[in-house]
Model the fold of this input.
Amino acid sequence: MTPEEALTEGFQKWLDATVPAETGAKVTWEKIDPYVTSTRSAEFLADGVARIKAGTLRASPGRPQQRLTDLAGAALATGGLAAPALTPLGAAVAAAWARHDILQLSSNDAKRYEFSRNVVLVETALRRRELPYVEWFRHWRRLRTDRPAGDWFGDVWGLTLAAYLRVRRGGYHPYDVMVAAGCPPWKHRSDLEHWSATMRRPAGWSRSRLSVLLADRVGDTASRAGAKVMFCRAMEAVCLKREGASSEQLHNTFTAWGVEDA
Done:
């Protein structure tokens, strides 16, 4: 079965609801990590947590309010800029990062421990059964059953596309339909891109809704998805550990991923 056969009228209706305008429209996707455009690393989270602990968040470079908003989105901080505070999860993560000596690092080492920080963040949040981390972990566990984790890590575009297609609208779930039909989206990038050029265009649009989704949403998001992949690697590390992988097996796996601090 081809993607065209699997993605029927229901998919077109899904696209109509998903991409309401050619430019400027917000298109939601299934979140699976705490990172956003303005917070693309665990280093940034750790620095914000450290500044809240030290009472210096307002003096941080850039946009302190945006930093606090992003920390709150990661469930690590609360309150206003005048008196920000760590959430119980934020305090627990800060303590764990400090215990492993990866909370505050020199500029030379700041990005080296991205993987370690993410693993500690995931483990701490799951141990405390903190939302939304439990939900993100549930999403990842489903994804890793559909495709080997290493394949996802090597295909940022496919991982990003899945995040958009896994949002159900109007009773239709494109990702599930494609997987069930035997034509998973990650195997059909060129087909989907070709198909998008042949689909009907809404009145006044220069492209089809699928073209907008693939080029402007999936493509753009994938170009900034490094932190998302690192967080997924951390969730996979927790999965492997829970499945009984030995320290040597974990080390070898992390090294194969190219993790610097494995």
The chain is about 60% helix and 0% strand.
